[in-house]
Design goal:
With 345 residues, the protein is an alpha+beta fold. The protein is built from 9 helices and 13 strands. α4 packs across α6 and α7 crosses α8.
Length: 345
């Protein structure tokens, strides 16, 4: 039993344990072997949100999906497992911090952040603009090996985001950034960033771009607010006028159509009447040429027949000694006295 620990020392005194050094060496080797097998052995696991990037003596070999995989043991092959489904973000012109609202800083609080956020518009005004960019890894190989480390990728993304934002703001007047064209600016910045990210091979996809705070400098902020208020009032009046226009235009068009139809009907009736009179006059001329005296007498009688029913007659008795004048202050129906029987017409 040479390998068993021995108790050495006088009875009742301090005890010392004597251990065989070979046992210590075996235990150390066993622990190292277990660590090597777990972390550098022939098997490795890739989580669902990761991709496995296999390196052979530090050189890229292949990319593996989630699951259990085999490789050559360390130090021949090693594996990197970046999280490819995780959405990361960079912040321009503000810093949300890690401690919540207590750590939040904006360009109003920091000169460094103001330097990031301050830019020139297309109409040569200054505007402070903050933005958040969300991205995720789409090529683990490019993300890991085209730049030195993750900090370099983040720094490159920040530079690209600033450049794209400054270009979009610089191509437009300040009103677009402050009010009506924020969505267009976001779309343009995202498109420009995607082009530059692909050009530089960062291995990421720009998922979203969101403008946060867009303000003029503090010195002129109140003036811009007044201008914005006036612009809103103008828009309100324009919209109200357009509403009135939309309500009145159909009515006016309908009225115009009615008048046109009435005029067309009147035109047709007058033309038909004129044609009838022309035909009648032609026929009458032929009759007159054939029998002038008879035709003249008939025309006279017809005219009298048409006129006499509309003529008001007053019958006066000459023997009654009544003035043959109309009483202008009395209606016609009561001005003339009844004629006695046997009176003259």
């Amino acid at each position: 039993m040479a390998n068993r620990p021995e108790w050495i020392g006088p009875k009742g005194g301090d005890l010392r344990i004597k251990v065989d050094p070979r046992l210590i060496a075996i235990a150390v080797v066993g622990i190292i072997a277990v660590i090597w097998f777990v972390f550098g052995g022939p098997m490795y696991t890739v989580a669902p949100e990761e991709e496995g990037v296999v390196l052979t003596f530090g050189k890229y070999t292949k990319t593996t999906p989630a699951g259990l995989h085999f490789k050559m043991p360390w130090p021949v092959q090693t594996v990197e497992t970046p999280k490819v489904t995780q959405v990361k973000k960079i912040e321009i012109g503000f810093d949300s911090g890690e401690g919540g609202e207590s750590d939040y800083r904006s360009f109003s609080d920091s000169a460094g952040l103001l330097h990031e956020a301050q830019m020139l518009t297309g109409d040569e005004n200054v505007v402070n603009c903050s933005m958040v960019v969300q991205y995720r890894i789409i090529s683990a190989k490019d993300y890991l090996f085209n730049f030195t480390d993750e900090d370099d990728v983040t720094s490159a993304l920040r530079d690209i985001a600033e450049a794209a934002l400054r270009q979009a703001i610089g191509d437009r007047p300040i009103d677009h950034a402050l009010t009506t064209r924020k969505e267009q600016i976001q779309v343009e910045v995202q498109g420009k960033m995607s082009e530059l990210v692909a050009l530089y091979g960062l291995g990421v996809d720009i998922a979203a771009v969101q403008l946060q705070d867009v303000k003029p400098p503090k010195d002129v902020e109140q003036s811009f607010r007044e201008v914005a208020s006036a612009r809103e009032k103008r828009e309100e009046l324009v919209n109200r006028a357009r509403g009135y226009q939309s309500a009145e235009l159909p009515r006016a068009k309908g009225e115009a159509q009615r008048i046109l139809l009435e005029a067309a009907g009147y035109k047709e009736s007058r033309m038909a009447e004129a044609r009838g009179q022309a035909v009648r006059f032609t026929a009458l001329a032929k009759e007159y040429a054939a029998a002038p005296e008879i035709t003249r007498t008939r025309m006279y009688l017809e005219a009298m027949e048409d006129l006499l029913p509309r003529v008001k007659l007053t019958i006066v008795d000459e023997k009654a000694g009544v003035l043959n004048l109309r009483n202008l202050g009395v209606p016609v129906s009561t001005a003339a006295p009844k004629a006695p029987e046997g009176g003259q017409r």
